[in-house]
Amino acid sequence: MCFAQPKLKYHAMYSDFLSGQIHFDCNQFKFSLPMELCREPNSSANHENYRLAMRQRETMLAQLQSDKLSYQTRLTKMMLSRPPGTLSEDEAAASLFMSKRTLARKLKREGRSFRKIRDEILSQQAATYLHDSQLSIEAIAALMNYHDSANFRRAFKRWCDPSSEQFRQNVRSQTVHPYD
C-alpha cells in the first residue's frame, strides 16, 4: 500500500490494521487486492434494484430542460443525484450559495416550493417502483429512505390519492396478458 502523505508519528500503528508493505511519501495513493478477492461476488448487491434506480434516474434527468436552468431545474437535478429524500432545504441552499430563505423566495417566484418539488420527485420515483418492479411495499419504502413503511404508505396516499397497494393493483389490472 502506498500513501502520498509523509510518515506520521503514529505510522507504526498502520501495520496493526493493514497487512503487507506500507510506503509513505509516494507520488500517488495505491493499494493492491488479490485477483481472487476481486472475483468474489458482492453478497449484498441487488442488480435489479440498481438497474431500476439508474434507469429511473436517467429518465427523470432527461426530462429536465438543460438550457433553462431555473431554480426548480437546479434543485431537481440536485435531488436526483442523491438517494431519494435525503437532500435537505438547507443543503440545497448551501449548494446554490444562498440562504434557505433566498432559495424559498426564488422558488416562489417560479411558483414552486422545495416541498412541492421534493414531493413530485418522490411520488414519481415511488410510482415507478410500484409500476416497474415486483418489490414489496416495505422494500420500496426502504429504497425511498423511509425507515417505517407506514410513513411511506401515508406519504404515497397524500401524493397520489390511491394507496400504494391500490395503485399497484390498478397497474396490474391494466396490464395486458397476451395469453388470456
UniProtKB/TrEMBL annotation:
Gene3D superfamilies named among the record's database cross-references: Homeodomain-like (1.10.10.60)
Protein name: HTH-type transcriptional regulator VirS
SUPFAM superfamilies, per database record: Homeodomain-like (SSF46689)
One MF annotation (Gene Ontology) recorded for this entry: DNA-binding transcription factor activity
Keywords from the named record: DNA-binding, Transcription, Transcription regulation
Highest taxon, organism lineage: Bacteria
PROSITE patterns: HTH_ARAC_FAMILY_2 (PS01124)
Pfam families: HTH_18
Domain named HTH araC/xylS-type: residues: 73-170
GO cellular component, one term: cytosol
